[in-house]
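hey so i finally got around to running the thing on that chain from the lab meeting. sorry it took forever, my laptop kept dying and i had to restart like 3 times. anyway pasting the input first so we r on the same page abt which one it is
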Amino acid sequence: MPNRIVRCSRAAAAFVSIVLFAQLASAATDTWVQLNLKSHPSARVNAPMAYDPAAKDLVLFGGYDGSTYKNDTWIFKNKTWVQLNPPVAPPARTAAAMSYDVQLKKIVMFGGFNGSQYLGDTWIWDGAAQTWTQANPTAKPTPVTLPMMFTDPLNGHAEMVGGYDGMFYQDITWQWTGTNWKKRNPATWITARGAAVVANDLAHRKVVIFGGLADVNPVNTWTWDGITWTEESPSMQPPWSFYTPATYDPQLGEVIMFSGSSGTNDTWVWTGSDWTMLTTQQTPTARDSHSMAYDYASQQLIMFGGESSTTLFGTTYLLVVH
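ok and heres what got predicted. didnt touch it at all, straight out
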């Protein structure tokens, strides 16, 4: 049981437009570089992280440090970590999910696990004001840990699918309307799972999901176009991965995922139709439960934390592409 847990609207088009400068890179010179930062979050796992275009920084919240469930808020800004002290903070948790909502110009966070409960509360991060506000929707998804969250490719709202409620893995897709959660009813539903690899594939205006934990085989790849789920048939797939983040890298024009529960330290890319391995000169230690997002302000893909066996990491890496 996991406890670590149609057309684009103007807003969605604006979200997609930030990646139109994508450049294909030569894999032979791509590399992971560890940053030596004086200030950074403590070592932890499963801390959700997302980019806030309105405030132009990465936001990281909470996680689990091996003994304590955290509720601290950090931003990665000007190439360093800064801890914030908002007047109100969500209760401590790990394995929540969060994503940017283009329509609201804010980050939406849902769910997680606090050591004894699966959480079903919704919190909104206003990067301009640097404040957390708890939402009070009338329609609420089942409290879960390790759901997958992303930005809708069509209208730019935050969306969520899956997660684990302590007994069952979920398969419902939800959309945040700005004040409420709305259940989606696609023609095809993704099979139930939690802790899966998920990222917005901005080059193809879709969301990609791979792997995760489930009662039925989750070692497959699905895409979401804002209307329905489609199971893809790539010629190659990464090893089964869960507790593994991913993000879109506009310099490569592809979705990037690093390592995961397979125990390898490989870097994989989703091209829009297939998975391929990216060869890098240097690579971090194999890990899972880390955090990853692309920082558009500094034009760097940032990876933080995670664990390998019983070792927790508090290190920050960036992926340098040429």
